[in-house]
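lol so apparently i was supposed to do this last week
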Amino acid sequence: MKSSDVIIIGAGIIGLSLAIELRKKGVSVLIVERDEPGREASHAAAGMLADAGDEFPAPLVPLAHASARMYPEFVHEIEDESGGKVDLREHGTIVLSCHGEFPEGAEPVSTQRLKSLEPSIEASSLLLTAGENRAPSEICAGYLHERSVDPRELVAAALKAARHRQVDISSGAEVKSLLVEGGRTIGVQTDKAKYTAQTVVNCAGAWAGVIPPFEVPVKPVKGQMLAVVEAPRLQHVIRSEKVYLVPRGDGRLVIGSTLEDVGYNKQTDVNTLQRLFEAAVELVPGIAKSRRHEAWAGLRPGTPDELPILGATAISGYFIAAGHYRDGILLAPVTAALMSDAVTGKNPSFDLSPFSATRF
Ligand SMILES: Cc1cc2nc3c(=O)[nH]c(=O)nc-3n(C[C@H](O)[C@H](O)[C@H](O)COP(=O)(O)OP(=O)(O)OC[C@H]3O[C@@H](n4cnc5c(N)ncnc54)[C@H](O)[C@@H]3O)c2cc1C
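anyway here it is w/ flavin-adenine dinucleotide bound
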């Protein structure tokens, strides 16, 4: 029977980042992962580090800003400890809107500047598509200083960094239930063995809600994506009302996504992918000649109020860090910092009460 100070359930970006942070504090950590580490939502994500205020429920805004600020250092440390390279892009995001609806903080961009920032964007097609009777010169574009990251590189490097820091990882072991004795956590029961620890943190993403005996309303929200190659080389992330385009350093262009309430279903659908592709071609006609490289779907961990669940539960020694919905890649650094404080009995630097598991 394995024993450690803390057991983390789930080796997605949230579990891995928290494990690294806890090791820095000298805590011994075992991650129990049902499958291969980092192959679920954290593998499927677009990797936009979008912290613009009005896209978030109010309590999440300060955490989103803090996490965005932490990112360069977070990635730098992971690169250092893993020896791997993570594609963190600093070019920013261009938001296109026919109705002039932009996130707070977006700088207006004239049509002329838009052409020089991203020559392959066909801005006028946005107005035509929306049936707007306006001149192309009136197209609305905004610029945001947001970064993006390749989540697959990030997760792969975080896994190496965690191993480098002597995080123990048990893959292919599914946690079936928490073990509780006299109201206190004593470990987890998996399909293979029992593991003991005084503290357990549930970082099981879209599956976090179904680990007995403490169930929380986390539900999967499916997102389909595709990646193309040999497309026009974009520098910026481009977002419109219908689609987003996220360029990667290796030449892939990621096109996303959908928000589907269909349970634990990760199948892709040809018609949906075609709709996303066509919306991308409307923005950047050169994409029509690109080659499809890959299509996939992932499950975002959603909650009823779209806020994550962070902190202690009614069971002593049992914590949850899940429900990061559309922003778990962005929120990984701040989650790791806050949860490592909570788990080691320090006061977290943000009030975690809006994210409490007891709010449901
Ligand atoms: C299409 C799509 C696009 C996205 N785009 C962005 C974006 O641009 N920016 C952004 O910030 N976020 C984005 N997200 C959201 C982000 O991917 C998630 O919020 C984040 O990855 C959640 O991380 P996690 O570690 O909680 O979950 P996951 O990465 O899903 O990891 C959970 C892990 O727990 C394991 N597990 C589950 N149950 C058990 C069990 N019982 N026992 C053991 N292990 C278990 C799973 O196998 C999995 O490895 C996107 C998500 C999707 C699907």
